[in-house]
Design brief:
This protein has about 400 residues and is an alpha/beta fold. About 55% of the residues lie in helices and about 10% in strands. The protein has a 6-stranded parallel sheet with strand order 1-9-6-4-2-3, with helices on both faces. β7 and β8 form a beta hairpin. The model has no long low-confidence stretch (mean pLDDT about 95). It binds fe (ii) ion. Fe (ii) ion binds next to α8 and α12.
Length: about 400
C-alpha cells in the first residue's frame, strides 16, 4: 500500500477511534499522593464498607515487607485479605486465571494491586475476569469489557508504567509471548496512592528503566496528533518531573523528594497516555519485550531517541517546546535546533542513569518479524509519522550490538 493510502487510512482510523473513545464510559478516579498516602488509600477502602480485599502483587515485594507496609491501614482495620502474589514481569493470561481462582475462592469484593505495571495490569484483568465467564482473550482491543468489574485500587511501587492512571492492561501469551492490550473505561483504578515511602527501596537500574518508560509516555502523548482533554498539560508535567527527578532518584534512592517527583511524573505521564495512547517507540519496544524479554523501560529507552530523530520534521514544534520546558534550549531558537537539543537531552539523561544505547539480545534474523509487528502496531496509534519497514530496520540496526 502506498504511503498516501496508508496516511489516509490512518487518519480515518483515528477519527473512528476518537468517536469510540469519546462515547466510552468514563470512570471516576481519585489519587492520594505523598508520604503516607498508602494509609490514606487503605482508610478510603475501609470507609467504603468492604470486608474482603484481594491483594494482587509479586513475591519479592511481599518478602521485602513492602506489601505489609502498604496495607497497614487494612490490617489495622481487620479487613479479610487474600493474596495472589504470582505475578511475574510481563504477566500472562495464565497468571490472570490463577488470580481469578483466588478471588473467587475468597469471595473478594475489591482488588488492591501493589507493584509495578505487571501487577497492576494483571489485577485489572483479574478484576474483569472475576465477574465474567468470558475468556479475557476475547477482550483484546478497546472497549470490549462491557460488564461490571470488581472495583480496583492501586499502589504503584515503581515510577514508570503509569498503569495506575490508565484504563489499559498489557497481558502476554505464555507460549507465543505475544503481548495483547486490553483497554476500556471500566479498567481504570477507582483510587490510587502515590506513596514515595514504598519506592525508596527500588534498585537504581529499575528506577532508571521505569523512569525512561514514564518519560517515553510523556513524550509520545505530547507529540501525538490527537487533540484530546488535558493531555498536553499532563504530558508536560510528566516530562518536566522526570527530567527534574530521575537522575536524583537514580543516584540516591532514599531521596524522598525525588521519589515523590518521579511517582507524580509517572502518574501524570500515565494520565496523558490514557487520553491519547502511546506511539512508535512503544510499537517497536513491545516487540523487543515480547521476542527477547527486554524489560519494557529498557526497550523504550533503547528506541526513544531514534524514533524522535525519525519524526523530527513532523514533531519539531512540539519537541522544541519540550526542549524549552526542560531547559535544554531557549525560546527564540529555531524549532529544528531546539528539537535536536531535546533529543540530545534525552540521550544525555539515558546515559546519566546508566542505560546502554545497544543491546546484544537483538538478532538480525528477527528484523522481519519485529518490523511487521511494529509497523502494524504503530498504525494503531496517533503518531506524527507512520513507521515504514526501512525505518524500523534502520532503528533496529542502530540499537543492535
Ligand atoms: Fe510504557
Amino acid at each position: 500500500m502506498s504511503m498516501f493510502l496508508r496516511k489516509t487510512k490512518h487518519a480515518l482510523y483515528l477519527r473512528l477511534m476518537k468517536l469510540m473513545v469519546n462515547f466510552a464510559p468514563s470512570a471516576r478516579h481519585t489519587a492520594f499522593a505523598g508520604s503516607g498516602s498508602s494509609r490514606q488509600l487503605c482508610n478510603h477502602i475501609v470507609r467504603t464498607g468492604v470486608k474482603k480485599v484481594l491483594v494482587v502483587t509479586d513475591k519479592p515485594l511481599r518478602q521485602l515487607g513492602v506489601v505489609d507496609q502498604a496495607i497497614a491501614g487494612l490490617l489495622d482495620a481487620d479487613i479479610d485479605i487474600a493474596y495472589y502474589d504470582g505475578v511475574l514481569p510481563d504477566p500472562t493470561f495464565d497468571q490472570v486465571a490463577a488470580g481469578v481462582v483466588v478471588a473467587k475462592d475468597h469471595g473478594s469484593e475489591v482488588i488492591l494491586a501493589i507493584g509495578g505495571g505487571s501487577s497492576m495490569d494483571a489485577a485489572k484483568i483479574i478484576a474483569a475476569s472475576a465477574t465474567s465467564d468470558e475468556s479475557p482473550t476475547e477482550w483484546v482491543g478497546f472497549g470490549k469489557v462491557k460488564h461490571e468489574v470488581l472495583k480496583l485500587y492501586a499502589i504503584p511501587t515503581t515510577s514508570g508504567t503509569g498503569s495506575e492512571a490508565t484504563m489499559g492492561a498489557v497481558i502476554s501469551d505464555a507460549v507465543t509471548h505475544t503481548k495483547s492490550i486490553i483497554s476500556g473505561g471500566t479498567l481504570l483504578p477507582a483510587a490510587v496512592a502515590l506513596d514515595p515511602d514504598l519506592i525508596v527501596g527500588l534498585p537504581p537500574h529499575i528506577t532508571a528503566a521505569t523512569g525512561m518508560d514514564a518519560l517515553t509516555h510523556g513524550i509520545e502523548a505530547y507529540i501525538g496528533v490527537w487533540e484530546r482533554g488535558t493531555r498536553l498539560e499532563d504530558a508536560r508535567i510528566g516530562v518536566k518531573l522526570v527530567f527534574e527527578n530521575l537522575a536524583a532518584a537514580f543516584h540516591n534512592g532514599n531521596d524522598l523528594d525525588a521519589r515523590e517527583g518521579m511517582s507524580m511524573g509517572a502518574y501524570y505521564a500515565g494520565l496523558a497516555i490514557n487520553q491519547v495512547n502511546v506511539g512508535n517507540v512503544h510499537a517497536i519496544a513491545h516487540q523487543l519485550g515480547g521476542k527477547y524479554g527486554i524489560p519494557h523501560g529498557l526497550a523504550n529507552a533503547l528506541v526513544l531517541p531514534h524514533v524522535l530523530d525519525f519524526c523530527h520534521d513532523e514533531a519539531q514544534s512540539r519537541l522544541a517546546e519540550l526542549a524549552v520546558l526542560v531547559g535544554a534550549g531557549s525560546a527564540g531558537e529555531g524549532d529544528s535546533q531546539l528539537a535536536h537539543k531535546f533529543i540530545n537531552a534525552v540521550r544525555d539523561l539515558r546515559t546519566e542513569v546508566g542505560i546502554p544505547d545497544h543491546s546484544d539480545q537483538i538478532k538480525r534474523e528477527d528484523y522481519d518479524y519485529i518490523t511487521d509487528l511494529a509497523v502494524a502496531e504503530g498504525a494503531a496509534y496517533p503518531v506524527p509519522r507512520l513507521l515504514d519497514r526501512d525505518s524500523v530496520v534502520a532503528i533496529l540496526t542502530h540499537i543492535t550490538d
